[in-house]
Write a structure and sequence with these properties.
The protein is built from no helices and 12 strands. With 128 residues, the protein is mostly beta strands. The protein has one domain (6-126): Thrombin, subunit H, CATH 2.40.10. A hairpin with a 5-residue loop joins strand 3 and strand 4 (39-47).
Length: 128
């Protein structure tokens, strides 16, 4: 694994999750603490599309692979949206600033996505 894992505590359930990507999947693991105080890491869900290090904001995971930018619900692993208009991706990781996601593709293009999850809308524009 060459990507960076992300840890998250669900504000509703209090459950802790760890998210990792590799070349073939995005995986979510949960941490279970047993009565004897031992802990166990268990897989919660997986998405059969690997990619760059995931970035987490407001309960959503953002990551890129191939010519795609993905957004996945951190709790369920459900695909929220994806866009295939960006150029090739190698190790570029999205950056989240406020309600916008930025990514630079292999064609040296910078893309900005303005995300309104409550409305289910995403606006994409090329910055360079």
């Amino acid at each position: 694994m060459l990507t960076r894992p992300v840890a998250w505590r669900d504000p509703v359930s209090g459950a802790t999750s760890i998210f990792v990507t590799n070349s073939s999947a995005l995986l979510a693991f949960g941490i279970i603490e047993h009565e004897d105080k031992t802990m166990e890491l268990v897989q919660k869900w997986s998405v059969n599309s690997g990619g760059t290090s995931p970035v987490l904001a407001n309960g959503l995971l953002f990551y890129a692979a191939g010519n795609n930018l993905y957004t996945v619900d951190a709790t369920s692993g459900a695909l929220i949206w994806q866009d295939s208009h960006i150029g090739p991706i190698h190790w570029q990781t999205p950056i989240v600033v406020g309600s916008s996601i930025y990514i630079c593709d292999g064609n040296h293009q910078v893309w900005r996505y303005d995300v309104w999850p409550q409305a289910g809308r995403v606006h994409r524009r090329r910055l360079s």
